[in-house]
Specification:
By secondary structure, the protein is α/β, with parallel strands linked by helices. It folds into 4 domains: about 50 residues, Calcium-transporting ATPase, cytoplasmic transduction domain A; about 110 residues, no CATH class; about 150 residues, 3-Layer(aba) Sandwich (Rossmann fold); about 120 residues, Calcium-transporting ATPase, cytoplasmic domain N (3-Layer(aba) Sandwich). The protein has 16 helices and 19 strands. Strands 7-19-18-17-8-15-16 form a 7-stranded mixed β-sheet, with helices on both faces. The longest helix has about 35 residues.
């Protein structure tokens, strides 16, 4: 079953799901998946999904879908076989007739004809593509990368641009308080209000809200309690907070633009100082006492991901519905030169299509939310993060179960190695036939030796495909 922790604090081994051996700390409200191993204290878990609807069952379904679907690239060998097999049978008949009628040696002609049929058996040709795709798909699954459609590997080989959604892909998507800026003196008292007091007031006001910004602010302090809390669209949240001395303050927490305050110039200067982060103002008695700046952290592996993409000669592009300033700041920090901000879900798809028109190569899209579904479906290859919505994962050809952005360049590198491996297999299978069929037709190859050589050819293709695993 999958579930949510309602009581307890412990550590879990999630290696069955994520492949990571490092234990993860969990507490109340943490989600747990089937296959997780509890390593320490007791936990009370409320089941949210059981049996076939659990996360591990869904992963198994994806794997079954991937292995059951026949790759279109495999049809290449099917088309070749349609011509190759009749041609070989015809060549075998011609070989017999030449030896029997031309040289009067029907016994040797029969042996040569059989040798041609045996040596040309298209076993190696038939397994050349599927073996490489099977090994590559297994390698991806081992790294937490579920490849739903094996054809994706051939398309990924042509990708030269990767469009990355910002929130949840290159950033964590979880807001935290990055900075609290104190503003001026208290109205009527002449005393400077400490940022600690402003944090406590704001946390008390926001504690009952489920908004991501409110949750981040509420985590700052737990000492005070607010009453008569009222949330008004466009005006923020207001409420009465009683401090440690018993005084009551009518506190407002709102965005800088919606705040009606007397020290506007000071606030505007603080907003300019804070830059591209999400901002809220804490005010009471018509005076702004603090500016709280929040941001979602860039993923720890995002910079390395971008660097690896560039080493693969792939251009990263940032795409987000967030504000221009924040997207620009993230792009600059990661060294991404091309980015699109304030983009709606419909515009994301239009942006993908516009990029595709201007490029002769394939485009990959990486996202995690409902707002990315259209773009994921519209790209040549859609890649969904494992923590994203089910809709995003359904629209994507690849799902990164462990949520590591490093799996993005790994997938692209794997596709390049797989495509090279497929060409090697096909080259070996065709080269083998081109060399040994004439030898067999000339009567220089015993049918028993031809059978041994044919088996060796298939074994060689299998071993070459397994080289992907050894290198991986």
């Amino acid at each position: 079953m999958d579930g949510q922790i309602v009581e307890g604090l412990s550590q879990l081994d999630n290696s069955l799901i994520t492949g990571e051996s490092v234990p993860v700390e969990v507490s109340v409200d943490s989600k747990v998946s089937a296959g997780s191993v509890n390593l320490s204290a007791n936990l009370v878990v409320s089941a949210t999904a059981v049996s076939a609807s659990s996360r591990i069952a869904q992963i198994a379904d994806l794997v079954r879908e991937a292995t059951a679907r026949k790759a279109k690239i495999t049809s290449l060998t099917d088309r070749i076989s349609v011509i190759f097999v009749p041609a070989v049978i015809g060549l075998s008949l011609v070989t017999y007739l030449v030896w029997a009628l031309g040289f009067g040696d029907s016994a040797r002609g029969l042996s040569a004809a059989i040798a041609v049929l045996v040596i040309a058996c298209p076993c190696a040709l038939g397994i050349a593509v599927p073996m490489s795709l099977t090994v590559a798909t297994a390698l991806g699954a081992k790294r937490g990368i579920v490849i739903r459609d094996p054809d994706t590997l051939s398309i990924l080989n042509r990708v030269r641009s990767v469009v990355l959604d910002k929130t949840g892909t290159v950033t964590t998507g979880q807001l935290r308080v990055a900075q609290v800026i104190g503003l001026g003196a208290g109205s009527g008292s002449g005393a400077m209000i400490s940022t600690t007091q402003a944090e406590a007031f704001a946390a008390a006001i926001e504690r009952g809200s489920v908004h991501p910004i409110a949750k981040a602010i509420a985590a700052l302090d737990q000492s005070l309690v607010a009453t008569d809390i009222k949330e008004t669209a466009g005006s923020g949240v207001t409420g009465n907070v009683t401090d440690a001395t018993g005084r009551v303050f009518a506190v407002t927490v709102a965005s800088p633009g919606s705040s009606q305050i007397s020290n506007r110039a000071e606030l505007d200067a603080a907003v300019a100082q804070a830059g591209a982060m999400s901002l809220v103002v804490v005010s009471w008695r018509g005076f702004a006492h603090a500016l709280i700046a929040l941001e979602d952290d860039i993923r720890a592996d995002a910079a390395e991901t971008i660097e690896r993409l560039r080493k693969l000669d792939i251009e990263p592009i940032l795409l987000s519905g967030d504000g221009q300033a924040r997207v620009s700041a993230v792009a600059k920090q990661l060294g991404i030169t091309e980015y699109f901000a304030e983009v709606t879900p419909e515009q994301k798809l239009a942006t993908i299509e516009r990029i595709k028109v201007g490029s002769s190569s394939a485009i990959a899209m990486v996202g995690d939310g409902l707002n990315d579904v259209a773009a994921l479906a519209g790209a040549d290859v859609g890649i969904a993060m494992g923590s994203g919505t089910h809709a995003a994962q359904s629209a994507a050809a690849i799902t990164i179960i462990d949520d590591s952005s490093l799996s993005i360049p790994y997938s692209l590198e794997l596709s390049k190695r797989t495509w090279a491996n497929i060409k090697q297999n096909l080259g070996w299978a065709f080269g083998y036939n081109l060399i040994l069929i004439p030898v067999a037709a000339l009567g220089m190859l015993n049918p028993m030796l031809a059978g041994t050589a044919m088996a060796f050819s298939s074994i060689s293709v299998v071993l070459n495909a397994l080289r992907l695993r050894w290198r991986g």
